[in-house]
Design brief:
Layout (H helix, E strand, L loop, with lengths): L1 H16 L10 H9 L5 H7 L1 H22 L2 H14 L3 H18 L10 H5 L3 H17 L3 H19 L7 H13 L9 H10 L8 H23 L1 H10 L2 H4 L4 H21 L3 H19 L7 H13 L6 H5 L10
Helix pairs in contact: 1-15, 1-16, 2-13, 6-8, 6-17, 8-9, 9-10, 10-12, 12-13, 12-15, 13-15, 16-17
Length: 340
């Protein structure tokens, strides 16, 4: 039994290590070459490895179903829900601090959200000004100094980057989700706030709408995960194949390289959908955190671009379910939340 569990962990690690941010572990020449190369033929790979595809697909489905039925088990819910409910209050604070720290890191490392977007290339002579601005906005969010204004500035910056980088910014939609949540509903902790700004937003946004705040965040977190995976493994699948080749992953995990990339894409897309629809949120968060950590250690990636992902996943775990999640809709007893 231990061997089976170990093999499963190795397989999923192999899948996830071909991460959604391949540009973090490849140099510029490798990225340039991969972007020009044709995408892998997944249909052909499925036909060639149909047995493996069906086997691992069934294993994944069984694991998901077992966790789901455990998650909605009444005895387990009654046991775990009291302390899980106590964690919810920390989620907005974690999200706000996460966004603040991520922006501080962006300013400090002179790159906007990721290493592949250096400030100098985007803002030219204004690089230093933008760098200091990001650090200031990040500090404002972290300590709660006019957090709503800081979030509005972050949202405006993100919209400006959409104009410049277009659909590529979906990779970083998590930033937008957290910024919009704070901009619309205010900061979780506030050292100093603008009463006038708060009054305007209170009139425009009814307090009853606050129940949607984590809906915005988890939806855009899911969108970010799905798009990042599709970008690096479907649209530009040669990026992921380059990572497999560069780190000789097939030496450790005897699967066809394209099969590894396909499995990785399907798992990452599934995780993103879990967050978007609200299915097994806590399990998806734990899975994501564990294997993201292993990926960072294995590849020796820079940690700072992943602050937003790590912090948001922790916030998702601590908050758990909101009324608009798939799993809650299935609950007969609305006073209980699924555990995982």
């Amino acid at each position: 039994m231990r061997k089976i569990i170990f093999i499963l962990l190795l397989f999923f690690l192999a899948q996830y290590n071909v991460s959604a941010h391949e540009v973090y572990v490849l140099d510029s020449s490798e990225v340039g070459f991969a972007l020009e190369a044709p995408a892998p033929n997944f249909i052909s790979t499925i036909n060639e490895h149909l047995g493996q595809f069906i086997t691992w697909g069934l294993i994944t489905i069984i694991i998901v179903l077992v966790i789901f039925f455990l998650s909605i088990s009444r005895p387990l819910e009654r046991l775990c829900d009291p302390w899980l409910d106590r964690l919810k209050k920390y989620a907005p604070h974690i999200a706000q601090i996460t966004l603040g720290l991520a922006l501080i890191a962006s300013g400090y490392y002179h790159a906007i959200f990721g290493v592949e977007l250096p400030l100098q290339a985007t803002f030219g002579a204004f690089e230093s000004l933008v760098s200091h601005g990001l650090i200031i906005i990040g500090i404002m969010l972290t300590i709660g100094l006019l957090p709503r204004i800081a979030a509005i500035l972050t949202t405006a910056l993100f919209i400006g980057l959409i104009v410049h980088f277009r659909v590529y910014m979906l990779n970083y939609a998590t930033y937008l989700g957290e910024a919009l949540t704070i901009a619309f509903f205010g900061g979780a902790h506030t050292l100093f706030a603008s009463n006038k700004m708060s009054h305007i937003f209170t009139r425009v946004i009814s307090p009853m709408l606050h129940k949607y705040k984590f809906l915005i965040m988890r939806m855009l977190f899911g969108v970010s995960l799905v798009y990042a995976s599709l970008y690096a493994k479907l649209i530009h699948g040669a990026l992921a194949l380059e990572v497999v080749s560069k780190y000789n992953l097939t030496h450790y995990f005897p699967f066809d390289p394209v099969f590894l990339v396909l499995g990785s894409m399907l798992i990452e897309v599934f995780l993103g959908i879990c967050f978007m629809v609200g299915f097994e949120i806590r399990f998806a968060s734990l899975f994501f955190l564990i294997f993201l950590t292993l990926s960072l250690v294995f590849f020796g990636e820079a940690v700072w671009p992943h602050i937003i992902l790590i912090g948001t996943a922790i916030a998702m775990f601590t908050h758990g379910y909101d009324p608009y999640t798939f799993s809650v809709k299935l609950e007969k007893d609305k006073k209980l939340d699924p555990v995982f």
